[in-house]
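> forwarded from #structure-qc
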């Protein structure tokens, strides 16, 4: 009986090994075919081929001894502030306001017998009237690097080193929550676009379903590649490539290293649409680029970053943002600035520019609780001839608590 079990175990192992080898050969064939014959889509296919190679490795592993158990984490931010700003027609936006932001994160992972780690990340919005699930994706980690599959930002977005702020953010639009132009001057493009951010995505897409591969970090360097079928989010509907922009590809890279007594972080990214819809005009394949630099020495930090949109229609523009920080023990101070642009359409319709200044302070109270405050000023201007009031300005003082759990 024991001999029969050993023979069958060897036979099963041989069958598994044969299946693994077949998948490896299939994956390598896909990569070779596309490198030689389909140069335009190399990046997309290589990424998919790499995913297949990882799947082959998983087949060879025995199941983990226990299922993944999810842990609960996240954050909560509550802010109270006073804003003084120009009236917008008959509207008065000055006064005291309370604003909230929070998420509950469900995370878990398990390590397979072959050493590979498989994890999940689901993020529930605590303050949202629309999409209640922010991001949800699966994670594969090993000596090969890391693969993310699901609803999440791209490598270009996540690998960018943007400015550091210790109060409310000025990179990704917090200022638009406190200074409201009432729509007279466009505030569209604060998130993932250069009117309000240096962390950008091609065409300004959000957490759409995608596949991202990150290499291991070697001598401070790391590379990430993302493929996204379309901008559709939280939907399993196959995109009609004649009707929508599709086959988004983006690349992110960064360097993170200590050099003597200084920390150096550098990032760069590029994203584009490789397949435009039928009948698309001149702005058919949007492109996004970004660069970032962070330098730290002792308690001081200097950060600067830029981003640009091209072939994105009225959302085209350039952003530049920077900050100086000082952090010592539980306290920190930051001074930041952002200039953002939105070129607008014909005759400057919807054109706008933003100039934002933030002076912020923080103090850690312990156990994941931080008090923070910001004194900010945001000015919006436009060259749109149809807008009567071409400048709008607001000043705000905000204080609150950040709780991580």
């Amino acid at each position: 009986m024991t001999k029969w079990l050993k023979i069958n175990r060897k036979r099963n192992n041989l069958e598994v090994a044969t299946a693994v080898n077949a998948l490896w050969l299939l994956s390598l064939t896909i990569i070779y075919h596309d490198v030689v014959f389909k140069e335009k889509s190399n990046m997309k296919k290589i990424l998919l081929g790499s995913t297949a190679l990882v799947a082959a490795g998983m087949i060879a592993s025995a199941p983990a001894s226990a299922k993944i158990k999810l842990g609960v984490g996240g954050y909560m931010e509550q802010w109270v502030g006073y804003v003084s700003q120009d009236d917008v027609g008959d509207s008065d936006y000055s006064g005291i306001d309370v604003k909230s932001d929070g998420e509950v994160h469900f995370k878990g992972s398990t390590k397979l017998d072959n050493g590979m780690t498989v994890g999940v990340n689901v993020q529930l919005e605590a303050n949202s009237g629309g999409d209640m699930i922010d991001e949800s994706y699966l994670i594969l980690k090993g000596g090969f690097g890391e693969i993310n599959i699901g609803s999440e930002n791209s490598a270009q977005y996540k690998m960018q080193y943007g400015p550091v702020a210790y109060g409310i953010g000025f990179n990704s639009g917090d200022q638009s929550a406190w200074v409201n132009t009432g729509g007279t001057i466009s505030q569209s493009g604060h998130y993932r676009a250069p009117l309000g951010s240096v962390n950008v995505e091609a065409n300004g897409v959000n957490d759409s379903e995608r596949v991202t591969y990150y290499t291991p970090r070697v001598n401070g360097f790391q590379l990430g590649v993302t493929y996204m079928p379309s901008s559709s989010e939280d939907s399993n509907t196959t995109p009609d490539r004649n009707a929508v922009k599709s086959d988004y590809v983006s690349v992110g890279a960064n360097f993170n290293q200590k050099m003597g007594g200084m920390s150096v972080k550098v990032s760069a990214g590029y994203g584009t649409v490789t397949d435009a819809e039928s009948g698309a005009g001149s702005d058919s394949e949007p492109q996004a680029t970004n660069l970032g630099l962070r330098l730290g020495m002792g308690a001081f930090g200097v950060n600067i970053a830029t981003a640009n949109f091209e072939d994105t229609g009225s959302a085209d523009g350039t952003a530049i943002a920077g900050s100086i920080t000082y952090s010592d023990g539980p306290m920190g101070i930051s001074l930041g600035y952002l200039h953002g642009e939105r070129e607008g359409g014909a005759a400057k319709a919807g054109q706008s520019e933003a100039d934002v200044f933030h002076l912020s302070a923080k103090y850690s109270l312990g156990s994941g609780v931080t008090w923070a405050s910001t004194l900010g000023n945001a000015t919006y201007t436009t060259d749109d001839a149809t807008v009567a009031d071409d400048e709008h300005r607001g000043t705000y003082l905000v204080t609150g608590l950040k709780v991580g759990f």
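QC bot note: Confidence is low (pLDDT under 50) at residues 1-41. Residues 2-37 form the longest helix (36 residues).
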